[in-house]
Amino acid sequence: MREIVVISGKGGTGKTTVSAAFAHLAENKVICDLDVDAPDLHILLDPKARETHAFVSGHKAEIRHDACLSCGKCAALCAFDAISLNNDGYAVDPLRCEGCGVCAHLCPAKAIDFEEQHCGDWQISDTRFGPMVHALLFPGQENSGKLVSLLKSEARSLAKAQGLDTVLCDGSPGVGCPVISSLSGASLAVGVVEPTPSGRHDFQRVADLCRHFRVPLAVIINKADLNEKEADAMAEECAQRGDALLGRLPFDPVVTRAMVARKALTEFDNPVGNRLKDMWSALQNLNVRR
User: Fold this and answer.
1) CA distance 49 to 51
2) Whose CA is closest to 30, among 47, 44, 13, 9?
3) 241-284: per-residue pLDDT in tens?
4) What is the pLDDT of residues 50-97, one digit of tens each?
5) Which residues, 6 or more positions from 107, have their beta carbon under 8 angstroms from its beta carbon?
6) What domains does the chain contain, in order, with CATH numbers?
7) Taking 90 as the threshold, does the pLDDT of residue 142 lie above it?
8) CA-CA distance, 75 to 61, in Å (whole number)?
9) Is 142 exposed, middle or buried (0-12, 13-18, 19+ CB in 10 A)?
10) Average pLDDT of every residue of the chain
11) Angle at Cα 259 formed by Cα 257 and Cα 260, nearest 5°?
């Protein structure tokens, strides 16, 4: 089974547009949206939920006032200043609480509950391109890397159960924890980059991350005609690093029209969609481990 993850050094580079096109073109695959903080692949693929599950992770402290002695030990021990005294007694600020559990374990009255948190929901859905695994964290919740790992595990299990040979993932932007989880066990990363000085910096960071985890990287330069000098510099860097350059995409309003129509660019005839078809064919010819 091969696992392809589409990533970018930042948001807004066209990663999901590329992912939707590849999801349309790929055969025998499970689609997986790993951008759990702000997913948007579902906008183009219109998934119909088959299963919905709660994502439970981490803990938060909550003081039971009926049992609290108002000794203040919890507030004194809290390293995050999450516990303060108000008119009703001591209380935990859920936005400051880091879930370390010190207050609950050392409260002399055992008056602090330390429950697991319902941080979001994940789903297995059906789309016109095949099965899809995706999720959404609630606002302000953490553990996105753990949720990404869960989605990848579920996608692999689903592919194995249905005899599918590809897991195609729309990864998270940036180079943080969810991206590291996205790359774990991947056969190939496809980096979508923009030809600007900051875009080249982002590209270098994500390329270094792939190299660190020994994940082969193939690159697509999006909106390449807006800054051909930077696009050429990126292509040269790909050659120097040994990364495959799948090709360049032009800036074209057809991308916006496809988004409005909630279609992948490859679902109708247009120059950008045709280039994406060529890039997918080029990707098939890469020596991708399984």
Assistant:
1) 6
2) 47
3) 999 999 999 999 999 999 999 999 999 999 999 999 999 999 99
4) 999 999 998 999 999 999 999 999 999 999 999 999 988 999 998 899
5) 73, 74
6) 2-46+128-284 (3.40.50.300), 59-118 (3.30.70.20)
7) no
8) 12
9) middle
10) 94
11) 65
Which among 2, 4, 3, 28 has a CA at the least distance from the CA of 18?
Answer: 4
Structure token pair of residue 51: 């299963």
- The owner of tokens 């592919």 is 159
pLDDT band at 143 (very low <50, low <70, confident <90, very high): confident
HEC string of the chain equals CEEEEEEECCCCCCHHHHHHHHHHHCCCEEEEECCCCCCCHHHHHCCEEEEEEEEEEEEEEEECCCCCCCCCHHHHHCCCCCEEEECCEEEECCCCCCCCCHHHHHCCCCCEEEEEEEEEEEEEEEECCEEEEEEEECCCCCCHHHHHHHHHHHHHHHHHHHCCCEEEEEEEECCCHHHHHHHCCCCEEEEEECCCHHHHHHHHHHHHHHHHCCCCEEEEECCHHHCHHHHHHHHHHHHHHCCEEEEECCCCCHHHHHHHCCCCHHHCCCHHHHHHHHHHHHHHCCCCCC
| 33 alpha carbon, distance to own chain's centre | 6
